[in-house]
Specification:
This protein is an alpha/beta fold. It is about 30% helix and about 15% strand. Strands 1-2-3 form a three-stranded parallel sheet. Strand 1, helix 1 and strand 2 form a beta-alpha-beta unit. The longest helix has 10 residues.
Length: about 80
């Protein structure tokens, strides 16, 4: 079994963990993997940015979803 940590978007003014903050956690826990949530990055930044070498090495899952304005996981 693999355990993975995912980058999150901010919700209602609550700041949550970004992919840049995950690097320090991955360095501390060598078996931990990374789930890249592209939808969360897009809703906060409106663009997808490059992943560091560490994030790429630990990447084991990609989560893609859409949003509408500030509503996350927006159904079509």
């Amino acid at each position: 079994m693999e355990v993975s940590i995912e980058n999150l978007n901010d919700i209602n003014g609550l700041e949550r963990i970004k992919k840049e903050n995950i690097e320090g956690i991955l360095k501390e826990f060598e078996k931990l993997k990374f789930t890249y949530n592209i939808g969360h990055e897009l809703i906060d930044n409106n663009f997808v940015s490059n992943l560091s070498n560490l994030l790429l090495e630990r990447l084991n899952n990609i989560h893609i979803h859409i949003y509408n304005e500030n509503r996350d996981h927006y159904p079509k």
